[in-house]
Write a structure and sequence with these properties.
The complex is a heterodimer.
Chain A (H helix, E strand, L loop, with lengths): L1 H21 L22 H12 L13 E6 L6 H17 L2 E6 L8 H6 L6 E5 H6 L9 H7 L7 H11 L4 E14 H6 L9 H13 L3 E4 L5 H13 L1 H10 L6 H15 L13 H8 L3 E7 L1 H10 L5 E4 L15 E8 L6 H11 L2 H10 L18 H7 L17 H12 L6 H9 L3
Helix pairs in contact in A: 3-16, 10-11, 10-12, 12-19, 13-14
Chain B lengths: L1 H32 L2 E2 L11 E2 L3 H8 L1 H32 L6 H9 L6 H12 L6 H8 L13 H27 L2 H9 L4 H12 L1 H16 L3 H6 L11 H10 L9 H25 L8
Antiparallel strand pairs in B: 1-2
Helix pairs in contact in B: 1-13, 2-13, 3-7, 3-10, 3-12, 4-7, 5-7, 7-10, 10-13, 12-13
The chains are: A alpha/beta, B mainly alpha.
Chain lengths: 449, 297
């Protein structure tokens, strides 16, 4: 009998510990608080939710009073990263100013693999962070419509228009606030340009080739290239001939050989390599070639997004005198001015109970003092164009402001997700000098279908 | 007896429930999902639409999936032959009574203790690098030209070589445990009968390691089909055809890649089911080919 009782007790302990182990560590949100998204459509929610928060907003210094409000923020950064440090500071300052409590959970870059599940299950999340294209395309049903709050706060004046327009176009409403803008182009060591007497950045492919020749004559290596960015680099060149829509069409349906501009673009690259304008060893494995800009001081340029500057400086322990210019145009080309632009952005869940408080925090974080801090400490473009870009980001704000219709990553090549990896390999081979003519390259692209 | 049954049920029930919830449910759901069109991996069943074998047709017509399967086959076959051969060789050497056995065993197993991310970074940056990588430095020392180990021609093999380096120790330990189970008197009798070491290996060790070999081949198959991290490390930023494997294809299909926001959880589930079937088929083939119940020792 005694044995039986002990055994039953042991079994019970096992079962209880199992259930305890499966339980959540954080305080679970009551079911009625975490209403499913279907019950709180983004379009209807602002009117229903915002007034409650606004009623609370009454304090003497003009800042809203959010005492008792608790916001949960799922961040794409990891604790200790420069961005995370600034977010923590901003959250603390916002708490002191308004009385709101912001609980931040650092989810890291893989947030994109868990955020949808969390939103679908109505997890207590007020603010989340991810790439703006994913927010506006994938999670839009779980995003709060920020259009009215943004208009009331004059958000347009403190943000880059292109991101707001594109995100609104994708989602049908403004789903997010830009936190970390990015822009693509040719980033270069200004000291090398100065040494070569290149005072005006090249605007056309001919001017670019002339500049490369000047650099080679002076003993410099013009362009670094890591294979990881080969498709981005060639995508830019192809875009200048065809435009993104045509690239997307070719990527989806083939016919590369039938479009003479494809062969022309590839031939340009073949000639570029033959002229010796690629850095020694390029294309290399990321980040070897880009690091040479800092490590050797002899490599002048790279085609990438702005984060490459901080990466090179950090990896090589140098302070390159960075600047940027837009990818040059080609004669008779279709697209001459647009740049790649992307952003990590912040969204508010459609079922958040305190959207106004969350929105106020987002503006607090992405403008003024904390945006400037973020830009300075993480060496990134400020989200608020009225702030000053750090020296390392010289020229990026202007490039973003000049972009009305941002190019996507790889300029349409990625639209065929089944073949994008194969495109990439062929493009790396193009830079490896494996194709004798542009026509050969176009034929190889067609052979993939 | 009745009391005992009650006790058994009490002890087994928590594990059984856990198994059903944590294992069988996801497996069952994945198999079911593979027959439906589903965008998000956690979409409710009301959002599923029946697609028959459409997802399977889609993945088997996908060039990226076909490339990934071809890469996986090469990893399984070429990598398997090298890994298991080296593991067996080291296991035999280390059980032959050599000195510093413990040191060598630990040294060969060491890569399994180190994070695969650190290992891959070491190979990419310090061994295969064009300028300061160990291999090219050695080639240049003997007056040869450096090789682009991570160019499109060589990248797959460079990745496989690095992977084998990390995997050998694990299989070696399993072989060692099998060899140590073989009674020493069998070898003594064979030595008295005049059998040399090679004959002893072929006539005693190998036949008595059938069961262990079967286990190792099955583990290797599982290891190969779940190959992911090395592929990701050797194709930073975005997936490349030279290193793509089915799990990377699955990941990209379910979550979207860089600059890609289209997702297809149904097709991803179909990939998962195909991979599971491959492992099951290999397991049954190995069971047919290597019967280990005909020998007792």
């Amino acid at each position: 009998m005694k044995k039986k009782i002990v055994s039953l007790l042991l079994a019970s302990v096992m079962a209880v510990s199992l259930l305890a182990g499966c339980g959540k560590t954080e305080t679970p949100a009551p079911a009625e608080e975490a209403a499913p998204a279907e019950e709180a459509p983004a379009e209807e929610a602002p009117e229903a939710e915002a007034p409650a928060a606004e009623e609370e907003a009454a304090s003497t210094d003009g800042a809203a009073d959010y005492s008792g409000v608790e916001l949960t923020f799922w961040s794409m950064w990891s604790a200790g990263e420069p961005q995370a440090v600034v977010i923590e500071e901003a959250a603390k300052a916002f708490s002191e100013k308004t009385g709101a409590t912001i609980n931040i959970e650092w989810k890291g870059r893989d947030i994109n693999t868990i955020i949808q599940t969390a939103l679908e299950s109505g997890e207590k999340i007020d603010i989340f962070e991810d790439d703006y294209s994913r927010i506006a395309k994938i999670y839009k049903d779980f995003c709060y419509d920020l259009t009215d709050m943004a208009a009331a706060a004059g958000y347009d004046a403190q943000s880059f228009k292109c991101f707001n327009d594109v995100a609104t176009n994708w989602a049908g409403f403004l789903p997010c606030v830009t936190e970390q803008p990015q822009v693509g182009g040719i980033f270069y060591n200004k000291d090398i340009f100065d040494d070569c007497g290149i005072t005006t950045p090249p605007a056309t492919w001919e001017e670019f080739l002339a500049a490369c020749q000047t650099m080679v004559d002076k003993g410099y290596q013009p362009l670094a290239l890591d294979s990881a960015y080969a498709d981005f680099t060639f995508g830019y060149h192809l875009d200048r001939y065809l435009g993104e829509a045509a690239i997307s069409e070719l990527a989806m349906n083939g016919g590369w050989s039938e479009n003479e501009n494809v062969a022309k673009a590839a031939q340009d690259i073949i000639d570029f390599i033959a002229a010796g304008y690629l850095a020694e060893g390029a294309p290399e494995e990321y980040p070897s070639s880009q690091n040479k800009i800092g490590l050797t001081g002899k490599v002048a340029m790279i085609v990438c997004a702005n984060y490459v500057c901080a990466e090179v400086n950090n990896n090589s322990g140098t302070e390159i005198n960075w600047s940027m210019f837009n990818y040059p145009s080609v004669e008779g080309g279709a697209d001459t001015s647009n740049s790649y632009a992307g952003a990590n952005s912040l969204a508010i869940s459609s079922y958040s109970e305190n959207p106004q408080a969350a929105f106020d925090f987002l503006l607090f974080l992405t403008s003024g003092e904390f945006d400037q801090k973020m830009a300075d400490s993480a060496s990134q473009i400020p989200a608020d164009p009225r702030n000053t870009a750090p020296a390392i980001m010289s020229g990026t704000v202007e490039a973003l402001q000049a972009t009305s219709n941002p190019l996507s990553w790889n300029m349409g090549l990625n639209d065929n997700s089944d073949l994008k990896a194969s495109f990439k390999d062929l493009i790396i081979q193009l830079y490896e000098g494996k194709f004798a003519t542009g026509e050969d390259f176009a034929a190889a692209m067609d052979a993939l279908y | 007896m009745k009391k005992n049954k009650m006790l058994i049920i009490c002890f087994i029930l928590p594990c059984l429930i856990t198994l059903l919830i944590m294992y069988l449910y996801p497996v069952g759901r994945t198999v079911l999902m593979s027959f439906f069109s589903i965008e998000s991996v956690t979409a409710g069943m009301s959002d599923w639409s029946f697609n028959g074998f459409g997802n399977y047709a889609k993945i088997f017509n996908s060039p990226a999936f076909k490339t990934s399967m071809w890469n996986m086959l090469r990893i399984w076959l070429v990598g398997g032959v090298f890994t298991l051969s080296l593991a067996l060789l080291f296991a035999v050497i280390l059980t032959s009574g050599i000195r510093f056995k413990k040191f060598f065993r630990a040294a060969i197993y060491l890569p399994n203790v180190i994070s695969a991310v650190a290992l891959a970074t070491m190979w990419i940056q310090y061994v295969f690098n064009n300028d300061y990588g160990m291999l090219n430095k050695m080639l240049k020392m003997v007056g040869l030209e450096g090789v682009k180990w991570l160019g499109t021609d060589m990248k797959f093999w460079a990745m496989l070589f690095a992977f084998i380096f990390g995997a050998v120790g694990y299989y070696m330990l399993i072989f060692i445990s099998g060899i140590e189970r073989i009674p020493a008197d069998l070898y003594e009798a064979a030595t008295i009968d005049g059998a040399n070491k090679v004959q002893q290996f072929l006539k005693i060790t190998m036949p008595l390691l059938k069961g262990i070999t079967k286990t190792n081949v099955t583990f290797w198959s599982v290891h190969t089909t779940t190959f992911f991290l090395w592929s990701k490390m050797f194709s930073p930023v975005d997936t490349e055809a030279t290193t793509i494997v089915p799990v990377v294809y699955l990941y990209d299909t379910v979550f979207g890649g860089k600059g890609v926001t289209t997702r297809d959880a149904g097709a991803g589930a179909a990939v998962g089911v195909v991979l599971a079937l491959i492992i099951i088929v290999i397991y049954f083939i190995m069971n047919k080919l290597l019967k280990d119940d005909d020998l007792e020792f």
